[in-house]
Design brief:
By secondary structure, this protein is mostly helical. It has one domain. 84% of the residues lie in helices and 0% in strands. It has 7 helices and no strands. Helix 1 runs antiparallel to helix 3, helix 2 crosses helix 4 and helix 3 packs parallel to helix 6. The longest helix is centred in the C-terminal third of the chain and has 61 residues.
């Protein structure tokens, strides 16, 4: 009986050791799988970078702003990839992984610096694009106003209904409501057209102002989102570099 009671704790200990061994083996397989998933995420990031930078149009504020937005919105993929690759630190690593881990650790620092440098570029391009919006809308408004002024000048020279109808057709306006039979009716019709031109001028001015406000608001929202995103990404990549000091010592 004494021998049986002595073996009972030993059996429990053996069972516990077996369970721990099975858990360790399962954890090892899971870590290996997660590492490969991380490498896959980093490979996908490389494809995204090729798409973003090909073709490159540096010094173009529109392209540079789109590039900033694309980098910020794609940043979660390499961040998750690095987190998965570095999971478990140096444990359960193949020999070929050591130089790769060291390279990836320094790459995290490089990406942090890149995102920090993108912030002033994003702010500068926000100002440049805001001015570009002003110029584009002002130029379009000036062209429309000039067209109306030209029509107004020609309106004073109109002598017949046919000439008036031809002029009205250039305004994309409604045709004349009534037939012109005498000079008095022609003058009334010309006043009606002049009034329509004045209304159209005010309308396009209001529409231009609304378009400018909408485009500037959209630009501002994107600028805030992408520049703050670049700041957050830079901090996260910097923290990744700091946390993976062990990889640089391999």
């Amino acid at each position: 009986m004494a021998k049986s009671s002595t073996n009972k704790p030993t059996d429990k200990l053996t069972e516990t050791v077996d369970e721990l061994w099975q858990f360790s083996s399962g954890l090892s397989r899971s870590l290996n799988l997660l590492h490969w998933i991380g490498y896959g995420f980093l490979a996908l990031t490389l494809f995204d970078l090729i798409e973003i930078f090909m073709p490159s149009r540096f010094m173009n504020p529109v392209w540079e702003m789109q590039m900033l937005g694309a980098l910020v919105e794609q940043a979660p993929v390499p961040l998750i990839g690095l987190a998965l690759v570095f999971l478990g630190e140096p444990n359960l690593r193949a020999r070929w992984e050591r130089p790769i881990l060291k390279f990836l650790s320094w790459s995290a620092l490089l990406l942090a610096v890149l995102f920090f440098l993108l912030i002033p570029l994003g702010l500068l391009n926000t100002v440049r694009l805001d001015r570009q919006i002003d110029k584009e809308i002002s130029a379009q408004l000036d062209r429309d106003i000039a067209r109306f002024q030209q029509v107004k000048s020609q309106l004073e020279l109109v002598q017949t209904q046919e000439e008036l109808e031809k002029l009205v057709s250039r305004l994309d306006s409604q045709p004349l409501a009534q037939e012109v039979k005498n000079a008095q009716q022609l003058e009334e019709a010309k006043k009606q057209v002049a009034s329509s031109i004045a209304i159209a001028e005010r309308k396009i001015a209001v529409e231009a102002e609304e378009m400018q406000a909408n485009r500037q608001l959209t630009l501002l929202k994107r600028s805030v989102k992408w520049n703050l995103g670049a700041l957050i990404c830079g901090v996260l990549f910097l923290l990744t570099w700091q946390a993976t000091y062990w990889a640089r010592l391999l």
